[in-house]
Amino acid sequence: MRTLFDQSEAVGEAAAQPQLNPGPPANNKWAPSGAHFLAGDLIYCSKASDGRICEMAGVEGRVALITGGSRGIGRATAEILAARGAKVMCVARNEQQLAEVGLEYSVADLGTLEGCARAVADTEQQLGPIEILICNHGIGSAHEKVVWEQQPEVWSETMRVNLDGPFHLSRLVLQGMVERRYGRVVYTSSTAGLVAEYAGSAYTSSKHGLLGLMRSVAQDGGSYGITSNAVLPGWVRTEMAERSARQEAKDQDISTDQVWAERAALYPAGRVATAQEVAEMIAFLVSEEASGINGEAIRVALGSVQ
Fold first, then answer.
1. Are residues 125 and 42 in the same domain?
2. Is 187 assigned a catalytic role?
3. Tens of pLDDT, residues 32-64
4. How many Å apart are CA 52 and CA 231, to the nearest integer?
5. pTM to 2 decimals?
């Protein structure tokens, strides 16, 4: 293994090797040890002014609670953080899907205070104090109607899961973060948290509300070493989005593939984002290196302005 400094200063075996580009390679991966970037047999590090090697601490050893962790963006995030050394607890309602992830898990209804309390208690008992909270669970809008036809029950259920749950989890976890003076919180909102979608009043309102919660946590926790941010994915081909695509295809009498082609056409890249791309942003925001980012709503939508 050869180690390089970021200013072309090499040590050990690498000292005799000319280095044309000591910066991180395009296909970098985080080293499990917490070093800067790993590429082949090279680890890229940073160097402090006093000569010490400053390894990027990332998330190694941190305890992370990830809701909606059994599939899609949540599962992708759990796998990334676990690979980078975090101790991960996945939470969802489907035990079979949770077991397939291969990480610690807790089965809970995150639309209730009792379910949220169970998820927090299970995490702390099995892994330790929670340092990273990722609220990723939610209900989509495939079953919604225009406002004047919307059933109050649909509104209430969406708010219970999409907004009440994240509030309960935040309230339960933040006290410990304040006491330890460290924490990372990320909420998965949506581009619908910025621009309303048709026939989706409950979903749109819940995702707008989630940004308000995120910004409140950023203000309340900012002086205690806590950051709070949100990711706003555009269309991602998850199981939840597939359900809405099937409903849309039925309503328009077209194929599901046509629906996804229309969705892809919304973005300059000509495709929808992947769960992995959203998960990578979440993984960065919960790292120690993201300490300067707080109260931000970050779109992961391939350049779309919608």
1. no
2. no
3. 333 333 333 333 333 344 444 344 468 999 999
4. 34
5. 0.80
